[in-house]
Specification:
The chain has 223 residues and is an alpha/beta fold. The protein is 40% helix and 22% strand. It is built from eight helices and seven strands. The protein has a seven-stranded mixed β-sheet with strand order 3-2-1-4-5-7-6, with helices on both faces. Helix 4 links the parallel strand 1 and strand 2. Helix 3 packs parallel to helix 4. The longest helix has 20 residues. The protein is globular. Keywords: Methyltransferase, Transferase.
Amino acid sequence: MTDHAPLAAAASAAEAMDGIYRWQRWIYDLTRKYYLLGRDRLIADLDAADGASVLEIGCGTGRNLVAAARRYPDARLHGFDISGQMLDTARRALLRRALKQRVTLGRADATTFDPAMFGRPAFERLYISYTLSMIPGWRLAAERAAAAIAPGGKLLIVDFGQQEGLPRWFKALLFAWLRRFHVHPSAELPGVLADIAERHGLALDCRSLYRGYAVYAVLRRPT
């Protein structure tokens, strides 16, 4: 019974995400454009060299993969999501922009994924954009991502912060809105990333952006 528990949990999570995004995926990028702040900065900070392997964890509609493919035309791009609905939208987005052959997509759970699903032991660049706050087991997802950083590589994360520099009413309204979509920003994120960095021998740069609106973190593995 225990052996089947992770599979059952993953299937349940996938079904839940498909239910949420079955219709939202068509307007997702339009409605998120103005409040998923820091995504373009993250893409720029990837600084992916020619031939570098890049992985997006929780690729959603493919918006970030399209941006990365345009910015780094000679990088090897990969992405996965737990939602089949979102992956379908991502494939359509890549196809429309003639990028389908440049990006490899897969379906996986961020808490259990293995780089081997893409035929690799690790990646030079990984990124997670506004995804951890949607994953119940986000600590494990961050741990798995950190373990998949190749020597000399880095993992970049941007997600909702605790709005500490903004009015209380703004935080209350934003968090209430986010809960409607099963998004739960955690005040523990910086501390958890610091613990992961220490245990994995990584250097961590974690900062607050836009008066606490977002947390922006970079974990680097020494060569």
